[in-house]
Design brief:
By secondary structure, the protein is mostly helical. Helix content is about 75%, strand content about 0%.
Amino acid sequence: MAHSAALLFGLTGVFGALIRADATVITFGRAAFALVALALFALARQRPLLRGLDRYKLCMLVASGMLLAAHWVSFFVAVKVGGVAMATLGFASFPAFIALLDMLVFRERIGSAEAILLTLVTLGLVLVTPSFDVGEAGTAGLLWGVLSGLMFALLAVANRRAARGMDALGLAFWQNLVVALAVAPFAAASLGAPTRLDWLYLGLLGVFCTGLAHYLFVKSLERLHARSAGMIIALEPVYAIACAWWLFAQQPSARMLAGAALIVSAIVLSARARAPSQEPASAGS
């Protein structure tokens, strides 16, 4: 199940490249379709979506939903500007940001494992960067991807508080609702632009790469330690680059592959550093 979740998460960037619409429309469509899928699943499984919801958690859900919206919009901008590989590798820097936020927010000391993690991610991003000119499309896409990774790291930290006492399905539902409401004003003027095929891709993105992928990941934690599941999810950039190579002929250079190897190694290191009983707060793009 974890491998299936990693593959579906990896396809997110591919659908972002296929859909001929801007990042706000893709984000709105993804959240809307995921919202319907999660609501139907909750109804079928008789899972109450209001369980554990109080005023404090509602505020945390709004904040985390806004971070999720920023994460998705910046990720899809990265895909449109720099391509699937650059966007995914930029996003994959999120474990380094989580380590930094742990130090700044939770006053945790950076140990040798975290220092190695930060070093690997930094070296990987340097190798992946095609040019240090921000006007170059690949570099701009990578920077948008890094911003997406930062937003995801902030989301993971926020979810540590928002997720306490809440069912994972309910958490995903309310966050997607906030995303849809937050981006709707920006997407409204362009909702007529997507073709029927684009709407099909949006449905697949929302139902399979969002709703189903998160369900499979959470379900995999019933049989796998969080550490093992996290290391499998670390394969997301590999799946994304492979799919982009196959579908769009976006062949990575040797330098990009070397950088990708360092970044994936950093994600694996981050997953191995987790306690076996600690579940990841979030997963996938």
